[in-house]
Amino acid sequence: MQHLLDQMNPQQREGVLQVDGPVLLLAGAGSGKTRVITHRIAYLIQERGVAADSILAVTFTNKAAKEMGERVDKLIGHTSLAKPLIATFHSLCVRILRRDIEAMRVNGIGLTKSFAIYDENDQQAVVKQALKRLGIDDKQLKPRVALGRISWAKNHMIDPQEYFLASANPLEEKIAHIFESYKKELFKNNALDFDDLLLEAVRLLKSSSEVRERYNRRYQYLLIDEYQDTNRPQYELMKLLAGTRGNVCVVGDEDQSIYSWRGADIKNILEFEKDFPETKVIRLEQNYRSTQNILEAAGAVVKNNVQRKGKELFTTREGGSMIGYYEAPDGENEALFIADRIQTYLREAGQKEDAPRCAVLYRTNSQSRLVEEALRRYQIQYHMVGGFSFYERAEVKDLLSYLKLVQNPRDSIALGRVVNSPARGIGKTTMETLERMALSTGLSTWDAIERAIQEQLLPARALTALAGFRRLILDARAMLGSEFAETLAADAAGEEAVDESVEFVGQEENASTEDENVDTSFDTSFNFGFDFGPSEEISTIAAENSVGSDSDVDTSFDAAAFNPFAASTQKHETRVSEIKADVVAKVETSTRVDGFRAPGDPATLPELIKFLNDRSGYIKTLETEGTPEAFSRIENLKELANAAQDAQERGETLATFLDHAALVSDVDQYNADARVTMMTLHAAKGLEFPLVFLCGMEEGLFPHSRTLQDPSGLEEERRLCYVGMTRAMDTLILTRARYRRRYGSDMPEASIASRFLEEVPSRLVEDLGSPSDTRSAWNSGREYGYGGGNKKWGSRRGNDDGYGSEKHYNYEDEDQSAIGPSSSSAAKPKSGLQFGIKANTGAEGSIDNIASFFGARGQKIDRPKLEVPDQKSATGIRNGSRVRHPKYGEGTVFRREGDGDDAKITVQFAQHGVKKLVEKFAQLERL
Ligand SMILES: Nc1ncnc2c1ncn2[C@@H]1O[C@H](COP(=O)(O)OP(=O)(O)OP(=O)(O)O)[C@@H](O)[C@H]1O
């Protein structure tokens, strides 16, 4: 036991040993809470003999869960086969619901275990449909706004009726209607969004005492990390899981509560003692991470908050370097400064043979672009957390939607996404008719397709295309069936494969093939040893079906029987049993060979993906497109198959694979080995780095403009600042730009120093060579204060330099698209040129150039001119041009790089987001 408690201070020890009853562990930044949690779990297992799998620990990110699991494993020496369950709230809820959601079904109505999980794009698609149905213009009420309100309501456990009753204006009433329609649509689609995962788990545990008691018996010890960031449903879930035993330990720090926009309620931690009167409160106040200067500076900022329990952190790491401050003339210069310092840091660390790690933290993702460009100029490799993740790429989302549909055909959003992707002749009119039909009959779109085919409700051409699509999904479903051979035979003979896990009543389509012009052929270039493609393919396929098996397998199938479009002349039942017997016999005669799946066994995940890639024609279409962009998409699709292979090796099913893809969050992308990491302040929580840059310290940017009028919002921003500052172990550098370009404006606008800068005592700050008048402000040595005519933070007064009146930025969201069309590009000369940086003759952005720039401070600085030398193509397309792409539709050119055949164009498309295209191949039409 002793070794578990070695290297622990008395409070940490208490946190480990106090395992019975409720415990509130108030753990300051860097005070070792992760250490306490892992040791507490190890102590329970090793010293108290508690069964490992009766411990449940809930963390904030998948990554934290994984790391915690590994650390516990190490501590207990891999002695126990059973493992504690360490999960995020969302993955815990998925687990509970996948197992027990059907306990909430009444008279066969309700969601099933194969429910889909909707991400933000799916949610937006549902909201757009709702807006359309309700006749609301999506320009007047943006889907994202409506979705934000719906999510807010859910996180506060308010249903559409309550929302409607509480609505104070017509807009809120509209949102209530949208909410109602959204909820119904998800239900119809057998789908849940992220918020629902929590809400439904709570509803389940409340409504079924049998289920709740089972979980209470199962999990006897409960640990919740980051408790300050729990919202109401998470809080209720915690109480339901804690049961009457109340062996619950919550760990948190009210000063690090930064998720109120997701409904997190700081009261949960502030009032834990009221909920559990027996609570033992333990405070961890010794910080092991940061130097005294950093801790003091961060403490001085957060001290200005009212909503806190109050802790005084201390450290034995006395002194340390001062907090660095750099005030740049503009955003580009700020980024160059950061890149320059990072280069120096990496070089010095390299000489000392240290493993350097540093982070650039910013308030919103859109700030990353300039820093990225600067790091590229310095040829410094970096790892960016957030932004465009693999799972958000259009082609990956498409393939995932195919998989979702295979898993849950009722998922009309997945269906809508891929029904005509790649193009297979199912047009907008067809889909609108089907959606109307679905709406008026209450059927899902999938079932509406089925009915349309049965009753021949659409033109033959459309029906044939729909039948082909439907067949593709059914075939993929059949591949997963455990009685695959039977399904295959029955299906081929025209009998529907019925999967009991999904309630849809399928029937063989009787689409006519009258329309000679319709291409019903499938792409069979990829074979798994079976196919339902056109007749001429069958004999080859059947032959391959015997991979590594009997050579005497009869390959002379009646090809016509496998063609869904061929009319059968025989009586249906006879045909079914004949084919069943035939296929089953073939499967039985084949012998299993190691490493090969026997025919008739369910397909593996990678096989399913390859099947969909090929049979859907997706890869073929991209190959035909032939652009570098298309080839990189093909690579992504292959990478998805690799991810599926990994998942398969971990024993994951299609459902768990999809759950995993749905639950991957930005933060999970963090790579602890990266030397330079860029991420938002939110994503940085829980991490630590020897060197940290906190950039964009400007009013309106940080604190964010949204919060300027809202005292509690401002307190949260301040906590975010505290979180950012306390990530630093040895060195913390704060930066700001005096002028910054905001969305859509030609000219950069003057900024005001963030009030958080002013809350840092000046005796702890060192100016790092900010050019121009900023220095004199710093050197005067007075304490800076916010407002009151104190001019110490450089040019707080925007018009001091003749730039017009003082303005706040208005960054409306975290959208990468909030970068103006006239923003700079890597190809243009940097603004530094106007500030005295020598033109780049040697290595771009080399240290000499930057040094000469810093050497130039004190010189008169002209108004920063950041206009981009506007590159224009032969077609006249330039930055800011409106264009149309044959596939992505309309968009705005955001950047143009290079010339001639090499010219690349980055376009922000309304529907498909940002795409980088090779101009030569892009077929862009100028609008
Ligand atoms: N008793 C201890 N002795 C020495 N180092 C410690 C001790 N406890 C924790 N540490 C170290 O202090 C650092 C911070 O610990 P940890 O990451 O567990 O803090 P935390 O409370 O989770 O921080 P935060 O809430 O700020 O993310 C780690 O590097 C950890 O190894």
TrEMBL record:
Q: Which UniProt keywords apply?
A: ATP-binding, DNA-binding, Helicase, Hydrolase, Isomerase, Nucleotide-binding
The EC number(s) attached to this protein equal 5.6.2.4
The record's SUPFAM superfamilies line, in alphabetical order, gives:
P-loop containing nucleoside triphosphate hydrolases
Q: Which Pfam families does the UniProt entry name for this protein?
A: PcrA_UvrD_tudor, UvrD-helicase, UvrD_C
> Region entry Disordered: which residue ranges?
862-886
Write out the catalysed reaction: Couples ATP hydrolysis with the unwinding of duplex DNA by translocating in the 3'-5' direction; ATP + H2O = ADP + phosphate + H(+)
What family is reported? Answer: Belongs to the helicase family. UvrD subfamily.
Recorded protein name is: DNA 3'-5' helicase
Single biological process term from Gene Ontology: response to radiation
Q: Where is the UvrD-like helicase ATP-binding domain?
A: 6-291
The residues that hold ATP are A27, G28, A29, G30, S31, G32, K33, T34
Question: GO terms for molecular function, please?
Answer: 3'-5' DNA helicase activity; ATP binding; ATP hydrolysis activity; DNA binding
Superkingdom: Bacteria
Could you tell me which residue ranges the UvrD-like helicase C-terminal domain spans? 292-686
GO terms under cellular component: cytosol; DNA helicase complex
